[in-house]
């Protein structure tokens, strides 16, 4: 990939890209208080949801309960594993292991698995379980999910198709930037099984994302279409952003986070350089408090913020920064930005808490379809907690 990828120019960080009050690591008491409030919310929701899962986004700040059928269910299980790591409390492990049984049943029965988000589902539930407890049931479920994901690989295009039947003309050859976070499941499966096909597919997909999802100015398309047979690139479009030529904030955050997470598995340093390009584009388009609007075309007033995108970006910036040399001046800037975002989220976006409510208010699920606007989104809750964990200890990602 290094020899073929032409990196976009790195846009310099504007002198005022980061709010002036983002000066460094928050006091330990602030960090500890945010973690304690998050754990209290998880405890309330354990009692509230029982064996059920929170829906992708809240209604009036409270998540409806649902079965294990959505693409987002792994985020709640991932939060339970994070809570277990933070505390060692058996109640979190017991609940998460109960979920693992549900996820094993889901992949075995191919229940709502006809999409690429199997990485979101199984990295945070079953790969996490295997890493933390050595559960062979969890490993078996994760391998089954990885094989389902590999079925979606289109050799002609060198991508994993995002959604729908592989024969559906409306969906054929579609990749989306979110899939960066699904690829670690394939790398894990390759390492666990010794089968190179998983790794090869992931390497081909991330190379296609780097070449075609990322635009020359460092912004990103949400989705890109290829001819599924010939592999010829067709066009980039949006699905959840403002316009085809705008930059959906959560998509940019998926890129900032996903490229360095894949670097952990394949060692391609160009992915780190590419993530820097995306990070600078993102940081240069933040409003005064550093929490993005739902699309980066908006930089001031009149539109909803997306706290979930900010939480994803914070985790991505922390992952990116730790892979940069100490002499790289952007390392300090990215750490400062991530710390500032997490502090801002904890002080101004965190929910006071009621049974069924999320950790973060003011997120956006799907603005064009009018779903989950100015609500809690379960992935935002997960990445906020992941960011707090990253800041509080040395942590091995589930990805």
Please identify the structural class as seen in this structure. Answer: mainly alpha
Fraction of helical residues: 40-55%
CATH architectural label: Alpha/alpha barrel
Query: What is the number of domains?
Result: 1
Radius of gyration: 19 Å
* Shape estimate: globular
Oligomer: single chain
Number of helices: 12
* Secondary-structure element string: HEEHHHHEEEHHEEHHHHEEH
Number of strands: 9
Tell me what portion of residues adopts beta-strand conformation.
5-15%
* Main beta sheet strand tally, sense and closure: 3 strands, antiparallel
Order of strands side by side in the largest beta sheet? 5-6-7
The CATH topology name reads Glycosyltransferase
Poorly predicted regions: none
Mean pLDDT: 95
Name of the CATH first level: Mainly Alpha
Distance between the termini: 21 Å
What features would you describe in this structure?
There is one protein chain. By secondary structure, the chain is mainly α. The chain has a single domain (28-392), classed as Glycosyltransferase (Alpha/alpha barrel). The protein has 12 helices and 9 strands. The strands form 4 sheets. Strands 5-6-7 form a 3-stranded antiparallel β-sheet, covered by helices on one side. Helix 10 (307-322) packs antiparallel against helix 11 (329-349).
List the helices and strands and how they pair.
Blueprint: H1 28-49, E1 53-54, E2 65-66, H2 73-87, H3 90-108, H4 118-133, H5 136-150, E3 153-154, E4 159-160, E5 174-176, H6 183-193, H7 196-213, E6 223-226, E7 233-237, H8 249-266, H9 270-283, H10 307-322, H11 329-349, E8 363-366, E9 371-375, H12 378-392
Antiparallel strand pairs: 1-2, 3-4, 5-6, 6-7, 8-9
Helix pairs in contact: 1-12, 2-3, 2-4, 2-12, 3-4, 3-5, 4-5, 4-6, 5-6, 6-7, 6-8, 8-9, 8-10, 10-11, 10-12, 11-12
